[in-house]
Design a protein that fits this description.
Helix content is 30%, strand content 42%. The protein is of the alpha+beta class.
Length: 106
Amino acid sequence: MRSRYSAYVLNRADYIMQTTDPNGPMWQTDSAAWRAALEGFSRQTRFVGLTILAVDADTVTFHAALFQDTRDVSFTEISVFRQRGGRWLYVSALETKSATREQTER
């Protein structure tokens, strides 16, 4: 999880793509469009921090603090990972909670 967050911070779209499970719902067959979307997201986002809240067998619960312009787009997510060929690949989010209005106004 930390390496994927760092890849977003460093705008390393290829790494995000390589660590996404090809059988999961986040995988996109149009790699050029996918890469462009990832790079656009990384460029327009200020990454403030990542906090790992819990780790279970194949899930990671984390909070990512992010801003786009002055808008707080932080979220907490429970992510599912699958191990393939000795590597952990991101499958999907089980649950995502966006920043609340209260958090945005702070």
